[in-house]
Amino acid sequence: xxxxxxxxxxxxxxxxxxxxxxxxxxxxxxxxxxxxxxxxxxxxxxxxxxxxxxxxxxxxxxxxxxxxxxxxxxxxxxxxxxxxxxxxxxxxxxxxxxxxxxxxxxxxxxxxxxxxxxxxxxxxxxxxxxxxxxxxxxxxxxxxxxxxxxxxxxxxxxxxxxxxxxxxxxxxxxxxxxxxxxxxxxxxxxxxxxxxxxxxxxxxxxxxxxxxxxxxxxxxxxxxxxxxxxxxxxxxxxxxxxxxxxxxxxxxxxxxxxxxxxx
Length: 263
Prior knowledge:
The protein is of the alpha/beta class. The protein folds into two domains: 18-71, no CATH class; 75-255, SGNH hydrolase (Rossmann fold, 3-Layer(aba) Sandwich), CATH 3.40.50.1110. Helix content is 43%, strand content 8%. It has a five-stranded parallel sheet, sandwiched between helices. The longest helix has 20 residues, at 53-72. The protein is globular and about 45 Å long. The protein starts with 34 loop residues before the first helix and ends in an 8-residue tail after the last helix.
C-alpha cells in the first residue's frame, strides 16, 4: 500500500454557516473571543417602556446565546479510514466521502462531514490517534473503515480486532454512534486467514452492538477498468457504489435526531 499521507480533511457543511443562521448574529462569535466581549446590546424599546437597560440586555444575551449555541452545534460525521476513503489516486471531489457531502446537501441535512482518513493507515495507527481526532472533531457519527492494510500486510487478525474495538469504544464513550465498515481479502492469503479476517469485523460489530457494512466494495464489478494501475484502489467511476454501501447503514442515523455529544 502507499506510504501514509497527511490526513485528508474534507470538511463541508450541508447546512448554513454560523453567519447565515436564522438568528442572524453577525460577527458575534469568533475562536478565542468570548461572546460577551464581542457583543453589546442597546434597546430603544426598553427605554421607551421604562425597562431597566441591564434587564433587557440580560434577556437579549440569553436569547442570542441560545441561537449561537444552536449554530455551533451542527452535528459532525467523522469518516475514519485508509486510502479507500481518502480518495487515493483520484480527485478529492470524486471520492465516496465527497459524494456523501453532496448527498447530504441535496437532502438539506445539517451534518458536517470531516474526513480524517490516511492512505496506508492500519488499525494500530487508527487506534493510536483516535483520541486526538475525537477531541478535535467531537463527532455525532463515526464511520470506521480500517483493516484493509492489516490484511494486505498479513498482520495478526486478533490484534486488528482489538484495535478496531478500541476505536469503536473510544467513539462510543464520547457519545457518538458508530458504523463499522468491513473488508474482504483475496483467497491467495489462505482460507484460515481470510475467514478469520472477515469474521473479525462481524464479531466487533456484534460485541459492540453497532451497524456493519459487510464489505465496502460490495457490488463493484470485478473488471480491470474499475481499478487503478495498482489493481488495489478504485477509480472514480466506482465511488458511487461505495457510497451506496455505506449509505444503507448511515441513512437512518442522519434522519434520526442527533444525540448530544459531551463537551
